Amino acid sequence: MRCAAQLTDGSPCGGYAMADGSGLCISHNPAAKDIKQLAVRKGGEAPKKVEAAANLPTVTITTKADVPTFLVAVIDELRAGQVDIKTANTLGYLAGVLIKAYETAEMEARIEEIERVVLERRTRYGG
Ligand SMILES: [Zn+2]
Question: Structural domain boundaries of the chain?
Answer without folding.
Answer: 1-46, 56-125
